[in-house]
Amino acid sequence: MMPRHPRRATALIALAAAAAVLAPVPAASDPAPPPPTPAAPPRTASAWLPYWDQEAAYATALRHADQLHTVSPFWYETKAAGRVDPHLHAADRRVVDGLHGAGIKVVPTVMERMPRGALADVVTDAGRRATHIETLLSVVKSRDYDGLDLDYETIAPTGDAAYEKVRDGYATLVTDLCGQLHALRKQCVVTVSPKTAGTGRVWDYKRLGAAADRLRVMAYNLHWAEGAPGPLSTPAWYDEILRRATADVPVDKLEMGLPAYGWDWAVGSRGRARHVTSKEAEALRRKVGAPYHLDPASGTPHFTYAEGGTRRTVWYQDARGTAAHLPVLRRYGVRHTVLWALGFEDPELWQTLATL
Q1: CA distance 125 to 171
Q2: What percent of the chain is modeled with pLDDT above 90?
């Protein structure tokens, strides 16, 4: 059968042939197009920067900038509703600019060690709360900071008669502060102790998590300096912490606080244990010739040694121990961690955190 328009068909065939002749033929030596650049892995870690070892901590932050999205220099201390004092080396512009240059947000920590009941008086009084918020805002405006981290711990042991009022007052303080920080396009971060069956009732996780950009849970000191020797954390304890936290706070707002330190107790003594960084603990273990042992129940390294006539025991955390804890975080979908503290850690820890 002949086509209905033979001339049109002939013209189209001729055009196609001409196009084929004119089309460029790639030379055999032309390089293949480069493969697409893979996306950089997300930064999932934050860390506190101790002012008393600032240079080493700052250098550590820069070495691991590809994993750190936020650094919180431990720079400020609340003394009263209208007074927030800087620590030594606070507000170092070189550090702020250097961290920003590495793509890391700078969210300094404001902590407090106020006398018993003093912080409770601030958070439960509307006028004092307002004064304190204005004081905190003046801190965040004083430098090119990206926000504030509030680490207020003296209210944690509030007694039965007052804890509900203090809990509500603190949640109101945080809600109001976060609202004003957000108006300034600044981040609002809140650090809390773990909530378990027997601890943490003063923290209203639901209200704090709703107001803040991130809620940091200090998941360490299960055994601490003034108590009996033992691990700083365990997977079972992490499970209890996260079961409660994820019920009240979106997982993408949670940061699980990981220890990079330990305690060195005199066995049988009621004295306070010595603080050791993870690096110091491992160096001590090697010095005294103690074998490395990872406690199977807690996933925590520990060893004993003799000093004079005293038997001492050290529990600390390292990369292998942290690796034993991370499956709990994965099970709850928590990908963000915050390290106490920069410069304390086992150098292998960063590779371990990259697997979360």
Answers
A1: 13
A2: 88
